[in-house]
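In the previous chapter we treated chains in isolation. Here, by contrast, the input contains two separate entities that must be folded as one system, with a combined length of 224 residues.
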Amino acid sequence: AQSVTQLDSQVPVFEEAPVELRCNYSSSVSVYLFWYVQYPNQGLQLLLKYLSGSTLVESINGFEAEFNKSQTSFHLRKPSVHISDTAEYFCAVSDYGGNQFYFGTGTSLTVIP
Amino acid sequence: DAMVIQNPRYQVTQFGKPVTLSCSQTLNHNVMYWYQQKSSQAPKLLFHYYDKDFNNEADTPDNFQSRRPNTSFCFLDIRSPGLGDAAMYLCATSREGLEAFFGQGTRLTVV
C-alpha cells in the first residue's frame, strides 16, 4: 500500500521569500505524484503532477516539484511567494493502474506581508 | 465550464435525519470518489466507483452509502447523521486513476 508523509504541518514565510514544502512517499510499485492546493471552503485544485518523463515539473503560477526516486520524495518549491499563495497544500500519490489517491496530512502555508 | 459539480454547497441537516449529497461530472470519467474532510485534516476516502463497480473502504461506517445510477452522477447517502459526521464532503473523478478532478465540496452541518 502507498502512504504519503508531509512533515511540516504549518509553514510561515515572508512575502517574496522562497519556500519548500516537503513530501515523502512509500510504495512498492511505480507511482504517479501530485500536489493539490485547497483554499478555505473550496475543493482541491491540481497544482502540478508527475506521471512520467522529466522529473522536474512546473505549474503556471511559479511552483515546481522534483521527483526523486532514490529519496522517494516530491518536494514543492517556489522561489518567491505571494500573499495569494496562502492555502493548504496536499501531496498525493496513486499507483500505476490503480484507482486510489492517497493524501498526505497537508501543509498550511501562510505568507506574511 | 464546471467539470465536477456538487450540490448543495452547504447542507444543514438534523441529527438522525437522512441526507443525500449529489455530484455530477461532464468529464465522462470512469472513476468517481467520495471523500470526507474534517477541519485541518487530509481528505479521507470513503468509497469509489470504477465504472459500476463499488469499492468501499474498510473503515467507512455503514451509515454511509452511495449510488451511481449512470456515468455522470454519484450520490452520497448518510442514513442517520451524527454530530461527528459534520464535515466537508468532496467528490472527485478520474480516468483510470490519473489526475483527480475535485468538485467544490459540500459542507455538511448537523444540528
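The two ends of chain A are 41 Å apart (CA to CA). DSSP finds no helices and twelve strands in chain A. Compare these points with the single-chain example from earlier in the chapter.
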